[in-house]
Amino acid sequence: MKNDLDTKKLLRVFDKIRQNGESTDGTYRLEGVKAYTDFDGYTVFIEDASVKLSFGFHNQYHYDYENKSQRESFDKKIDNIDASY
Q1: Which in 2, 23, 46, 59 has the greatest CB count within 10 A?
Q2: Phi/psi at 10 (nearest 5 deg)?
């Protein structure tokens, strides 16, 4: 598998969502993107209505989506949050 995830950007975006988003029961929402961690904080989840990304210990990650256009839309949202906040 090609490593196509910029881990620094992902963690930066997670922090921006946490800092600038609306908080509800341990989850944060910003511009249609939801961010949260598992119970021990080792795995970070970032998702929208169509794509779920889990990023965990030792930089392991997994995207869950149905088609390429969903992933492209998700990536644009991530890029927009990174550039805007």
Answers
A1: 46
A2: -60, -50
3-state secondary structure of 85: coil
In a domain, 2, yes or no: no
Tens-place pLDDT, residues 9-60: 999 999 999 999 999 999 999 999 999 999 998 999 999 999 999 999 888 9
- Containing structural domain, residue 39: 7-78
Looking at the domain assignment, is residue 25 inside a domain? yes
What are phi and psi for residue 49, nearest 5 degrees?
A: -65, -20
pTM (2 decimals)? 0.91
60 vs 2, 9, 27, 45, 46, CA distance in Å? 12, 15, 21, 12, 14
In a domain, 85, yes or no: no
The reported pLDDT for the residue numbered 1 is: 42
The answer to whether residue 84 is domain-embedded is: no
Q: How does DSSP classify residue 5?
A: -
